[in-house]
Amino acid sequence: MPPPTDRDDRANVAIGTGIAQASGGSTAVVVNAYIQSTDPTQSGWIKNISDIFDPMLPSWTPGLGDSALLRAEQRAVPFSGNAAKTLQDLLSWANDSQPAQSLKLIAGPAGVGKTRLLMEVCEILKEKGWEAGFIASSVSTTDKPRMLQWWRIAGPARLIVVDYAEARPDDVVTLLESLIESQIPQKVRLVLLARNTQSWWFDMLTRSKHVRALAEGTAFKGTHWIAPMIEQNGREAAAFRKAVVSFAGVLKIDTPPLKKLRPPPFLTETIGEPLFLQMAALAYLRGDHPRTISGLIKATLLRERSFWKRLAQRIGLDQIYFPGVTQTVAAATLLGGVRDASSLLSFIQALPKASEYPKEAQLRLRALLLMAFPKNFGIDALRPDRLGEAFIVEELDSDLTLVESIIRICTDRRQLSGVLTVLERIVLRHALARETTLMITLNDAIDTVFRKVRPRTAQILDRALRAQRGNETKLFSTLQRAAEETLAKAGIQATVSANSLSIADIYRRMKIERKPLASVTDRLSLVIIVQSVGECYSALGALSQLMKPLPGTFKDFIALPTRHCYQAIHTLLIARYGIPVSVRIMTERMRAAADEIPVTFLPSND
After folding, report:
1. Do the Cβ atoms of 395 and 401 come closer than 8 Å?
2. 507-540 burial by CB neighbour count: b if 16+ within 10 A, else e?
3. 369, 375, 381, 382: CA torsion to nearest 10
4. Sorting pLDDT into bands at 50, 70 and 90, what band is 221?
5. Residue 225 Cα distances to 112, 196, 318, angstroms
């Protein structure tokens, strides 16, 4: 009997949804509507090159949530012509006759259009006879014998894309090693998509001599940083109108008069990501009028929650169980989805809220997830990523024990690596809120996961820091109180928070900024929030009496704001034991504005 296909899965999902709506939600019928599928690499089904590809099929149908419309595979908005040059560069690279096998890293912030760009490249090459596609997230490529078997399948030229490469280091290493060892003659182009190419790529080079040899040879074509698909050069209005018209056509609603359409002013605060522009277009059509990026994300998530509530009602899941729905969605999103539908019920039962529900409610919750987030052989995360990560923060803020439960659920290094990547992105995006209970909990979780993923690295750093940590711990325990007392004596009303970098933070700084341990100078930091601009400078003077200023480190972003209007005073002060302390001083208004600025454009602390 041939293996079930992704199309079979989606057909059954559609059948289950229809049954749920028509019957008022018979759980037995809905749950039994789903076939049981498994990862083809684990069951010997690899017979064709495309067996491990994600079909990238559109998942949105009338009645589903808006998040599905925003996904790259939906193709709801026509591909941007601004990316034509990048597209042609990639096609030229693919068509080069030499070398036979070639690798390229493509990096860029979330929502910038990386996935959609490579989807277009894949479609063009497939029309020319190539085998091209994305390796499905549900597929593990860590079994080298099976991957050697896959590479040696006879066939045409191939373009292989690995999305979220930074969260799949073991898969990428085995994929590259098996390609090198296969010694196949066919043309292969391998693309790794990632948010960045810093520590994860460096680690890969140190782990595998084969990967290092590939990176140092002519087969490696370097890193390409993707610029925004919608450039901020006056084209935002036209792109916004195009998105509104496209979504109106998909939703089958009347298109508003185009002359009156203007993109929201807050879009100028972004780096031109198509995602935010498309979210704003959908919000406009839905009657929402947010004024900030964070407001746009919250409005979009609110509509998603409303959709899940309607779906829960249709399948007969009582509203008292809805907190379990949202918590399960957040957990699945942090894990990057649940790869096997057969393990979904045990996954639900391992979470704090859903574990207390009766079996009947858990089954209905499972049916809801399968209908709302169908993906290959299990359920997908809430995407796009920026939306999913914002939702994770909302749910973790309401139940801090959730992150501990998720870490316990992780059964292998691949899952832990994915969780570590997502948590680091969340904490980095909330860099100015490290002192909150949520961020403290997340930093502790990052440290725990880091030690599980990189135990030897953690031990080495622990030993290197042991002598210094003693003095830093003594200083940290009194630093915040001393700063508060100093500012109070100067008559300055201020909120002071003290932060200390974890092992994971220090390691990331060393790799990303390529610094030795001694040069990571912001292991201790203070964030000072005052009432007025004048008090920012007064606070700096007062703190300079407590600690010695380090010449050449003063940066006045209040007098000279950054391009994205970030304002604050940055400096380094030397405390007791000669320990440097990074200091940032700003008003509450400046801090609120900084929360809306893409983290890529926030100045460093040192």
Report:
1. no
2. bbbbeeeeeeeeebbbbbbbbbbbeebebbbbbb
3. -70
4. low
5. 10, 9, 47
What's the sign of the alpha-carbon dihedral 451, 194, 513, 214?
Answer: positive
The Cα–Cα gap between 133 and 466 comes to 48
pLDDT tens-digit series, residues 309-337: 999 999 999 999 999 999 999 999 999 88
d(CA 70, CA 58): 10
How far is the C-alpha of 541 from the C-alpha of 586, rounded, in Å?
Answer: 14
CA 362 – CA 365 distance, rounded (Å): 5
Identify the pLDDT of residue 438.
83
pLDDT single digits (tens) 78-95: 886 567 788 888 999 999
Distances from the Cα of 59 to the Cα of 73, 83, 108, angstroms: 8, 24, 25
Buried-exposed string 195-232: b where 16+ CB fall within 10 A, e elsewhere:
bbbbbbbebbeeebeebeebbeeebbeeebebbbbbee
**DSSP, residue by residue, 412-481:** SHHHHHHHHHHHHHHHHHTGGGTTSHHHHHHHHHHHHHHHHH-HHHHHHHHHHHHHHHHHHHHHHHHHHH
Q: What is the pTM of this model?
A: 0.78
